[in-house]
Design a protein that fits this description.
The complex is a heterodimer. Chain A has helices at 2-19, 22-27, 55-66, 125-133, 138-150, and strands at 29-38, 48-51, 67-80, 83-94, 100-112, 115-123. By secondary structure, chain A is an alpha+beta fold. In chain A, a hairpin with a 5-residue loop joins β4 and β5. Chain B has a 6-stranded mixed beta sheet. The chains are: A alpha+beta, B alpha+beta. The interface between A and B is large, with 42 and 45 residues.
């Protein structure tokens, strides 16, 4: 069944991506691969909207430079024809201070001929920025936002 | 059941974004559990809520902040008791009529035709910037360079 092929392709993609297997990750993707990660690109320039497979080795190499270990747990997967949605819990160990950055990552995949053509990714970007910076940003903004929300 | 669950989620989204909180809650089980990963110190109406009373109250707060809400559905994935939705939302702020636009990932688990869990993820950094009407990213990169 095509759903089983698509499910396995996404599972293979996740395994290869987080283990740093560039060739394995590329093998799961269509030549017309298109990805959007909804995140502030001024802080994470390797994210945002990218088109084509060259993004994949760049993204893996960027993460491998920053993090000594990258692991994930699959909390949710749904497969519906050519569409797959996953939610994973990701843990990245920073090389500079050995702290662990953790976040939930939502991904939507659209496949064609058994390969990933479209990829969309979401995570709590504000929390990730705080974790990467190593300090709480909320106090700086909380009063301003409360005022903005109440006007 | 996946088609019934898909339709339940579609009915839920249509009701919620039309401002019909009661109809949205009707799509949910009594023990509905909702979690939105966002900075609750800044956006206290998000975060974790349990049960129809808490979830309903949270949704009422969201609807009082915005005069108009609409949504588009770029993606909906349904399998068994699980449904995932990529939602594009447009909210008009009551205070200044500006429109906040952002994309959300919602993951639903259903039981007996009703939603029991909603797990929500979004680009919270972008949402904070839009609510504040301020380029927080530029502030941080200037600060880091200084």
């Amino acid at each position: 069944m095509v759903e089983n092929v698509n499910r396995q392709c996404v599972l293979d993609f996740l395994r290869a991506y987080y283990s740093g297997d560039i060739e394995g990750t590329l093998a799961c993707c269509d030549d017309d691969f298109d990805t959007i990660t909804y995140a502030p690109v001024e802080l994470f320039p390797h994210l945002g909207h990218k088109h084509g497979k060259p993004w994949i080795p760049d993204a893996i190499e960027t993460q491998e430079k920053r993090y000594s270990s990258r692991t994930y747990e699959l909390d949710f997967i749904a497969v519906d024809g050519p569409r797959v949605a996953t939610m994973t819990r990701v843990a990245l160990k920073k090389r500079n201070d050995e702290r662990i950055v953790q976040f939930e990552n939502a991904e939507f995949f659209t496949l064609a001929n058994g390969r990933i053509r479209e990829h969309r990714s979401f995570f709590d970007s504000f929390d990730l920025v705080q974790q990467v910076l190593g300090h709480d940003l909320t106090e700086s903004f909380a009063a301003t936002v409360r005022g903005a929300m109440m006007r | 059941m996946p088609d019934a669950n898909r339709q339940c989620v579609l009915n839920f989204l249509n009701a919620f974004y039309a401002g019909d909180i009661e109809a949205a809650l009707d799509c949910c089980s009594d023990d509905i559990d909702f979690i939105a990963h966002a900075p609750i110190d800044i956006l206290p109406h998000l975060g974790h809520r349990h049960g129809k009373a808490e979830v309903g109250e949270m949704w009422k707060i969201v609807h009082t902040r915005y005069s108009n809400m609409r949504h588009e559905l770029p993606d909906l994935v349904a399998e068994g008791d699980k449904v995932a939705a990529h939602i594009r939302v447009f909210f008009r702020k009551n205070n200044n009529d500006r429109v906040v636009q952002f994309d959300i990932a919602d993951f639903y688990t259903l039981r007996d035709g009703r939603i029991t869990h909603i797990h929500q993820l979004l680009d919270s950094f972008d949402l904070v910037q839009q609510v504040l009407e301020r380029d927080v990213g530029a502030d941080l990169t200037r600060g880091r360079g200084g």
